[in-house]
Design brief:
Layout (H helix, E strand, L loop, with lengths): L1 H17 L4 H15 L3 H17 L1 E5 L4 E6 L5 E7 L2 E6 L3
Antiparallel strand pairs: 1-2, 2-3, 3-4
Helix pairs in contact: 2-3
Length: 96
């Protein structure tokens, strides 16, 4: 039984390492999240046009082997932070 548990844990770790999302994937995720929250055609158009480029320029990502933590600084006091794991992002901090 222990042998199978170790194999399963190793398999999950390998999958986690291989599926750590990139900064580009974070930018696409955040762009989609912004568009979901917005009801404005103009904002959606701007996000489609410039979203990925702008988000990537104001974002830093730290990789921790099995996950990445990306932070987007909107202003000095407002940040968006999300953890990326298994090609998905979990929001950690959003401005109010």
């Amino acid at each position: 039984m222990k042998k199978y548990t170790v194999i399963i844990i190793l398999f999950l770790l390998v999958v986690a390492v291989v599926t750590v999302p990139s900064k580009q994937q974070y930018a696409e995720w955040l762009k989609g999240h912004i568009k979901e929250e917005s009801n404005s055609f103009i904002i959606n158009f701007g996000v489609d046009l410039l979203g990925t480029t702008v988000i990537e320029k104001v974002t830093t990502c730290q990789s921790y082997v099995v996950l990445s933590v990306c932070t987007t600084e909107i202003s000095e006091s407002e940040k968006i932070k999300a953890a990326g794991l298994f090609n998905n992002f979990i929001p950690l901090q959003f401005p109010k």
